[in-house]
Write the structure tokens for this entry.
Amino acid sequence: MSAPENGDLLVAAAVRKEFGGLLAVNDLDFTIPQRSIVSLIGPNGAGKTTFFNMLTGLYRATSGVILFDGSDVTDKPPHAITKAGIGRTFQNIRLFPQMTALENVLVGMHSRLKGGILGSIFYAPRVRREEREASEQARELLRFSGLRNVDNELAESLSYGDQRRLEVARALATDPKLLLLDEPTAGMNPQETVVFMEFVSKLREQRPISILLIEHDMKVVMGASERVTVLDYGEKIAEGTPQEIQRDERVIEAYLGKGATG
Amino acid sequence: MATRSHRARASARGYRERFTKASGRSRVGVWWRKLPPWVRGYSVLITVVTLAVTYPFYVDNLPTNIPVILSFPSLHDSVTILVFVMMAVGLNVVVGYAGLLDLGYVAFYAIGAYTAGWLASGQFQQVNVHVGSVGVGSAERGIHVSVWMVLLIAGIVTAVGGILIGLPTLRLRGDYLAIVTLGFGEIIPQFVRNADNLHGFDLTHGTFGISPIDAPGFGGSLHSALGLPVRYDDSFPPTPDRLFYWTMLGLLLLTVFCSFRLRDSRLGRAWIAIREDETAAGAMGIPLMRTKTWSYAIGAFFGGIAGAYIATFNSGAFPTQFDFNISVFLLCMVILGGMGSLWGVVVAGTILAWLNFDGLGNIGGWLNQNTPLNIDVPKYSFGIYGLLIVLMMLFRPTGLIPERRRKLEIEEGTHGPLDESLYEMRSANEPGAGERGSPGRQPRG
């Protein structure tokens, strides 16, 4: 519909999702500027994760257009969207439990590696070098994400916080331009949350990426985001800077509650 | 947790070293430690391969009155056993690595066998094609392609067949996939049974099957140059079974090798990721359809070669060979060995295939002789396999040799410097692995 405006990495125009009779996302317009952190908040069932899943190709939008980095990704399969540069984490951790932390990250690099079947069987020098470099990068990513000495632990044996970090490391391994974090601090204690959000801001300083955050923890949202969008019943009810959102009457009524503005 | 078990193992090692020193076996230990690391790391593998390669030389001297199992399999049966192990390794790529429940693997076996039947026999009397075949008079009609080429072609044809079957079916998940593959596993044998009159054209010779099929061989020039056998037939004393056995062993080792390399490759990681969580794998950039189809194609490739080889070994391809039971039987091997565990599948495949061709009969014979029982044990074969699986699921659900052993072994060695690459770390850890056996050893406890 509308061409991407300058400076917008992602433009979603009138995106709609119906599950049978249930309208989960109602003609949502949404943009993500380059190198920004934006948040999506709203009560449970507001359609945040559904919208996420449409952006990453897990769900097919009923109607609407999603443009990413200048190209139409509306009906692309998940792997193509990942290759185009959208990485994600899941609301309920979805690591590969029987693979090591390192292997999890290496899987994230899949679309960037080239090793073919014959090359892998015969250990072609090119494939060996590629694998060696990939595991070096993967180790670096693990360390960058704050995971130490767990490279060869099975993902299922990691602590909860480490599993969350590993999910981010795995998403970063896809070399995303846009990182989608679905409730990344859910289940973390306040201490872990602070450390995690420091990591997110470090991430944005060091890498040229944008971040879209779904989060229930208002401290995290208000502290980190440059722009907040509020969904309720699949519709956008407010959008603005954290300060604006905190003062918005409809948001307070639908989601924040009277006490939250303090 | 890891550190605790690590410490426990370390102290156990300490005790053992002290014990061996006290009992005066330290000299063996010193000698052992002087061996190059790769010898120690692969000692069990090397021993097993050596025993297997030399099997034809001592099989006739083995005792035939061993309690319970009576005797070891004859060379002739061993070839068939190895063919089944090879198919189990192929199926392991599909079921064990990629987690796609395939109940119709026998279809690949059949496609391979019939490809050999078409390309190396007198089935098509209408034509007279000879391509590098040995021991077949040029006047003999039919298509006669060199069996070595036939094996490769059969693998490729079957892989293409696997892709064609996979394209519509692999979009399904879990149980639905199993049901559709079950269907294909039935369609192909039914087709070969009935394709003796396709508008007057005899493709498969119906229930009679295609026979005889040419034997492999190296031909006259290679025989005089390198002493390789001209043809796998009675001209090679004492029996051509030796040649078939060695060739099959080579094929199996090649299959295992490829399977190993693939597992540790980019593609293998993608398979295991799909097995672990398909949705997440897709979201991490793995093209699901393509990756699953590759696993199907590679599994089919090995199944096709195995089928073609047994066809040339039996000198025939018959529709009765390709029963649904075989799919289940191969699946039993994979489950019993531990899904995805290469060595487990090889061990379980050898045991089960042996039970099927020799073992149950032998054990039954021994039972009837030495106990008042009088049962026809082989009659209950599938009941016994079922019982084995139930027992496995109860006491050892991860299989004989669980998949992650080797990885955990590596884990023990990672408390050192972190900036080593994966490959360096593996080789650096091999002495440790060698001390406690090879990658293929039985796990303790």
Notes: Chain B has two domains: 12-41+409-435, 70-363.
